Here is the input.
Amino acid sequence: MKKEEFVGFDRHEYNPILRPKTEGLLTSLLHAQKPHKVLEIGTFIGYSASVILENSDAELTTVEIDEKNAADARQNLKSFEGRCQIVCDDAENFLKKTQDKFDFIFLDGPKGQYKNYLPYLKNILSVGGVLVADDIMFYGLVKSDEPIKHKHRSIVNNLRTFLENLKSDADFETQIYDFEDGVSVSKKVR
Ligand SMILES: C[S@@+](CC[C@H](N)C(=O)[O-])C[C@H]1O[C@@H](n2cnc3c(N)ncnc32)[C@H](O)[C@@H]1O
Here is the structure.
């Protein structure tokens, strides 16, 4: 289905949906990795979830804080019902209580929280699993040498810390893709 045909697409002026190159990268990683259990943080109306489900045989758990978005996603992902669980909750709440392990994680929720989520995500990612984080450059500001406006400063600083923590963690092999709004791909090697 095209993005524009998704229930709820018209309700939003700005649609923070997976962009084409990031979708291509996610698709090829799913084909290479062949995950069994995928976690997504940030469902929105279910577009990237549909990409994950169409390009793998995995069971997907996807977490969304907004009830209306989660309800739209439920309709959009109806055909995957047996393989897809949509959890309407704050991602940090979910991460604190989940007992599950995942072999593929797509992180696409609140950018300022990536740094706080990382220890939980590392803990529930199995060895050999992959963590993909979208929009890590935050409109290019994360790599900019210019002073950052006050309203963006904490998100940008948190994303910079997230990336430093990922890159300096010997348990992860991390690659940064500098297209669209930036994507990191980290394999948990031990
Ligand atoms: C970039 S959008 C996700 C787009 C979706 N992955 C896609 O490509 O189709 C981010 C989503 O994260 C949700 N979100 C924001 N804060 C959250 C939180 N604390 N816990 C869970 N979801 C959150 C937003 O409501 C929004 O729908």
The CA atoms of residues 20 and 179 lie 10 Å apart. The chain has one domain: 3-188. Residues 3-188 form a domain with the Rossmann fold fold (CATH 3.40.50.150). Strands lie at 37-41, 59-64, 84-88, 102-107, 125-134, 172-177, 183-188.
